[in-house]
Write a structure and sequence with these properties.
Layout (H helix, E strand, L loop, with lengths): L1 H16 L4 E14 L2 E13 L4 E9 L2 H14 L2 E2 L12 E5 L2 E7 L6 E2 L2 H10 L4 E7 L3 H13 L4 H8 L3 H4 L2
Helix pairs in contact: 3-4
């Protein structure tokens, strides 16, 4: 019996490693907290998690070591996963903007073959979401965490043609007229 449980654990571990989720660390920062005995060091990791098929999330983890912070960031990112509607050309359906505190991100769909034209954390979010052709610009703050959250906000506000037609109560064909 004990041997069988060990195999089950190994199988679960292998299954976790073979999942389609990808993780990318955007930033690792050493942070300090002033306490009675002096300064307490810890690490903050900003991690983007995605499956390159329309799901992406941004997570933040803090721990006394880098590995623990990254692990917590991945868990947090998986909790905050959103679905991104992609067009047939692996782009976004329409232009959009997103904001998070002082950061704003502007995104526009691009023609096939353009690639991801974006910088920093926004590029990472778009790549892990599975967007292949897009133009994006960071406006305002250059804080990676706020820019990643603004990118997620922009992607979250996207709607497909069928969703808009359904909301209006008309067939999709009449939407273009």
């Amino acid at each position: 019996m004990e041997k069988n449980t060990g195999n089950r654990r190994k199988n679960n571990r292998n299954r976790e490693k073979e999942t389609e989720w990808q993780e990318r660390v955007v930033q690792i920062r050493r942070v300090t907290k002033v306490v009675k005995g002096g300064k307490k060091l810890s690490f903050r990791a900003i991690v983007v998690v995605g499956n390159e098929r329309g799901q992406v999330g941004v997570g933040v983890g803090k721990a006394s070591d880098v590995i623990g912070a990254v692990r917590k960031g991945v868990a947090d990112g998986k909790k905050h996963v959103i679905d991104v509607p992609l067009s047939k050309s692996n782009s976004i359906p329409h232009p959009t903007t997103g904001a998070a505190t002082g950061a704003k991100v502007l995104m526009r769909p691009a023609a096939p073959g353009t690639g991801v034209i974006a910088g920093g954390a926004v590029r990472t979010v778009l790549e892990l979401a599975g967007v292949r052709n897009v133009l994006a610009k960071q406006l305002g703050s250059n804080n990676p965490l706020n820019n990643a959250r603004a990118a997620v906000d922009a992607l979250e506000s996207l709607r497909t043609f069928s969703e808009v037609a359904q909301e209006r109560g008309i067939p999709t064909e009449n939407l273009y007229a």
